[in-house]
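Data card: per-record layout.
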Amino acid sequence: MYSRQGFRIQEEDAKRSAERKDQVGSGDRSQRIRTYNFPQGRMTDHRIGLTLYKLDSIMAGDIQEIIDELKTHYQAQALKESNG
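The structure for this 84-residue chain is written out next.
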């Protein structure tokens, strides 16, 4: 009985560990969403290929250009998927 319970606990731990790894990711470069390069004053959003050289204003909250580009990208993607 104890070994079954121990096995069940190990299975649950392994399942939680796998779920956690999926959520966190590997930290690999290919998984990055955005890069902030302070020495160059550059922000790059890797999902849409947007690079802006105005990191100071972005960090101050001027992010409307990023939002607009993200909206445009995802709207175009949704349109493309809906047209087949």
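Known properties of this structure: The chain is about 55% helix and 15% strand. The beta strands are 34-37, 42-45, 50-52.

See the next section for split statistics.
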